[in-house]
Specification:
single chain; alpha/beta; Rossmann fold; 19% strand
Length: 200
């Protein structure tokens, strides 16, 4: 794989929050079994630790809405369910990042209200301020918010790398199909490969 310069690298952990990846979260029935079966958080944690250890930037994106949902446009079935079930409400436990990949001192938490991490946030500003040119991705779901945020990163001019075993989707087929698409635009690599490259 291409060399990674740790000082100019960020890892973005997409939607590692209870509403998405825990069995009792609103989207848990879609993703929790895959997350557990493939032990995906352990790989995401290894990548984050490796980036931190080489002075790279660790970022988490999460969804959280204000009381009354004035910032929620229900133009998709998934967004409509969020309002109906009163999910992703700021300050509630299920909006938090799961313990297995919990943010540490110096990490950045990006809160957004749409599908992807760049839209309507200061993520690009934060990355540019740190001199980042390479963005690694972990998270859920590979075929939805991971892909969407990776596409945004590409449009913003970043080199992208998807950590294949640190992401998952509702099915293995959806995950693999997304990796095949993302590999045409950036790079796809395993946790072992990424950690090895970061360590030089």
């Amino acid at each position: 794989m291409q060399e990674i310069d740790p000082a100019r690298t960020a890892v973005v952990g997409v939607h590692w929050q209870h509403e998405v990846v825990s069995p009792d979260g609103i989207f848990g029935p879609l993703f929790a079994e895959q997350v557990t079966r493939h032990n995906v958080p352990s790989y995401a944690a290894r990548v984050a630790d490796a980036v931190r250890s080489r002075d790279g930037l660790v970022v988490y994106t999460r969804v959280a809405h204000r009381p009354g949902y004035p910032d929620l446009i229900t133009n998709t079935p998934s967004f409509a369910v969020i309002r109906q079930k009163q999910a992703f409400l700021e300050g509630t436990p299920k909006t938090r990042i799961i313990d297995e990949v919990a943010p540490q001192v110096g990490d950045v938490l990006i809160t957004h209200v749409r599908l992807t991490g760049f839209f309507g946030t200061d993520l690009d500003t934060i990355l540019r301020r740190r001199g980042v040119n390479t963005v690694l991705f972990t998270g859920v779901a590979t075929n939805l918010s991971v892909t969407g945020t990776a596409f945004e990163a590409i449009n913003h001019g970043y080199r992208t790398l998807i950590v294949s075993d640190a992401c998952t989707a509702a099915t293995d087929d959806a995950h693999q199909a997304s990796l095949a698409t993302l590999d045409q635009l950036g790079q796809v690599a395993t946790t072992d490969d990424v950690v090895r490259s970061l360590r030089g």
